[in-house]
Amino acid sequence: MGDPVFFLPAASPTLAEIAALTGAKLAEGADPERRITGVAALDSAGTNDLTFIDSPRYLPLLAATRAAACLVTAKHLDAVPAGVVALESPRPHDGYVSVLRLLFPAAMRPQPVFGPGVSPGAHVHAEARLEEGVTVEPGAVIGPGAEIGRGTFVGPAAVIGAHVRIGRDCHIGAGASVTHALVGNRVILHPGVRIGQDGFGYQMGGQGHAKVPQIGRVVIQDDVEVGANTTIDRGANRDTVIGEGTKIDNLVQIGHNVAIGRHCVIVSQVGISGSATLGDFVVLGGQVGVNGHVTIGHGAQVAATASVKDDLAAGGRYGGAPARPIKEWYREELAIRRLAQRASARQKEDEGKEVS
């Protein structure tokens, strides 16, 4: 079996070009015309690769690296081994990411499998409207009245429902489904995403539970990215909204009527119940649960596995179940740990007395 390389570099910048791109200072005596053809971690970098270090814990790996050049902070300059060109930077990882983006633009978003144009194996309704430059791959279905903007890619077996609007330069991954939705420009929906299905709404009763019609939409603004197998329910009586620039990880559940602000970060396995509201730049760690109808303020950060049952103020950092200010949570956790340690010590002492 072969050993394929999935991403090939699209450029081979010189050290001078990398210094200009990243704002780094090239070490004196280094050849500014030396070319870099790859990037790699400290322990796997080869003689044509760029690497970086931004933590002292990796200094042993730096000492042994075979990289051509290394982005490094001023305090670690002396640790760069002979033969490795130092590029001094206050933020080495940021510089490394800039070079990654230059070398591997194809890794920025999923790529077409079969190439440009509308595949003969796709099913595009006669009343759908596609601008020039739309790619539709085999098995995809686009319903009546749907409109898709220039440069958008619709992957294999994806389903775009009737009257859906999708903007320009979007990517709809394989097997995704988008219904009852308005999608902005430069949006990335990874494989298996589900957008616009009805929310979880029932009128509970002693004889059974009557389904409540969900008549809202999903509105996804520009530059949003949604990870694989995430679900975003359409609104019940108003729209579910995902704000501009928000990034959502895999396996997230967003309920009906939820309003998420701009540039939020929502990590894997988060669940957000119906009618919750998130301000701009909110961060939710993995497996956070958010109750319905609560509000999380602008810039708030919630630690992984926390449970949000009440409103959270803007700018705060929270953790625990129920979520509370993180310093308070830390103090409580420490107090509980100390109590447990004391109880364990007393138990061992009592057991020792019984033995004697």
Report on the biggest sheet: 11 strands, mixed
Helix content: 10-25%
Provide the CATH architecture of the domain at 15-108: 3-Layer(aba) Sandwich
* Secondary-structure content class: alpha/beta
Bulk shape:
flat
Q: What is the class of the domain at 15-108 in the CATH system?
A: Alpha Beta
Look up the CATH topology of the domain at 15-108.
Answer: Udp-n-acetylmuramoylalanyl-d-glutamate--2,6- Diaminopimelate Ligase, Chain: A, domain 1
Strand content: 15-25%
Q: In which order are the strands of the major sheet placed? A: 8-11-14-17-22-25-28-31-34-36-37
CATH superfamily of the domain at 15-108: MurE/MurF, N-terminal domain
What is the number of strand segments?
37
**On the 0-100 scale, what is the average pLDDT?**
95
Q: Given the structure, what is the number of helices?
A: 4
The rounded distance between the terminal residues' Cα atoms is 67 Å
Low-confidence stretches: none
